[in-house]
Design goal:
Number of strands: 11
Structural class: alpha/beta
Strand content: 25-35%
Shape: globular
Number of helices: 6
Oligomer: single chain
Largest sheet: 9 strands, mixed
C-alpha cells in the first residue's frame, strides 16, 4: 500500500531534517506547519516534502487536519523530534510488500533525555501506533495528550521510534511551561480545578512511583 508520512511542526528547524530522512518507506512526506518563524518550512521543502501552513488548533485537531490532506489512506505519523531507527524503516518497507492485516501498527519508543537513553521510569517501551489506516482511525483529545482511536486490531512492528526530548534543564523548563499552559486551558474549558490535597500529594507520589517503583534510579541521578 502507498503511504503518506505526516509531521506537524512549529519552529522545528533543529530536528526536522533528521525526522524526514527516517521516512524512507513513505510515498509522500507531508509537513503541516503551524506558522513557524524559523526556517522549518524551507528545510522541509528543500528535502522534497509537501508543505502546508495551517494555524494551530491543538495536537489532535492538527493531526486530523494533516490526515485529511494526505494523498494516501495509509498514514505514517511521526513527531518532529523523533525518527524511525533502521530496523523500523526496514519493517515498514517489508510491510509494503504484503496485504495489511490490521487497522494500525505500533512501535516501541525510546526516549533520550539530557543525552542518555531512558530505559526505565515507565518511559520504555512506550508503544505508539504510528502506521494506520485513516479510514479506521482518528486522533482524539483537546489541547494536550492526544491519542489515536483505532477501530480494529493493532499489531506490534519491529524496530523503534527514537524520541529526542530535552538536551538541557532549561529546555525542559520551557517545555513544562508550554504544556502546563495548554493543560490549564483545557481544564478551564472543561470547568475543572485542582484541589489543595492533590497539589500537596501528587508531586510526591509521581516522584516515588517514577524513581522507585518504576526503577527510575537505574536511569541515573
Amino acid at each position: 500500500p502507498a503511504i503518506s508520512a505526516i509531521i506537524i511542526t512549529h519552529n522545528e528547524s533543529a530536528h526536522i531534517e533528521r525526522a524526514i530522512r527516517s521516512l524512507s518507506g513513505a510515498d509522500e512526506v507531508l509537513i503541516v506547519d503551524a506558522e513557524s518563524t524559523d526556517d522549518t518550512r524551507e528545510i522541509a521543502a528543500r528535502l522534497g516534502t509537501r508543505v502546508i501552513t495551517h494555524a494551530w488548533e491543538g495536537f489532535a485537531a492538527q493531526k486530523n487536519f494533516a490526515n485529511s490532506q494526505a494523498r494516501h489512506d495509509w498514514i505514517l505519523s511521526l513527531d518532529a523530534d523523533e525518527e524511525f531507527d533502521f530496523a523500523a524503516q526496514v519493517a515498514i518497507l517489508e510491510w509494503k510488500q504484503s496485504e495489511p492485516s490490521a487497522a494500525g501498527y505500533q512501535f516501541a519508543r525510546r526516549a533520550q533525555y539530557l543525552g542518555r537513553w531512558i530505559l526505565h521510569s515507565g518511559w520504555y517501551p512506550d508503544h505508539k501506533t504510528r502506521l494506520f489506516d485513516r479510514r479506521r482511525c482518528a486522533w482524539q483529545g483537546g489541547y494536550v495528550h492526544e491519542s489515536l482511536a483505532v477501530k480494529g486490531p493493532v499489531v506490534t512492528m519491529p524496530g523503534e521510534i527514537l524520541h529526542y526530548t530535552c538536551d538541557s534543564l532549561e529546555e525542559h523548563r520551557q517545555r513544562i511551561e508550554f504544556y502546563t499552559d495548554l493543560a490549564a486551558r483545557e481544564m478551564f474549558d472543561h470547568h475543572e480545578s485542582v484541589g489543595l490535597l492533590r497539589r500537596a500529594l501528587a508531586p510526591s507520589w509521581i516522584f516515588l512511583n517514577t524513581y522507585l517503583l518504576r526503577r527510575g534510579f537505574l536511569d541515573g541521578v
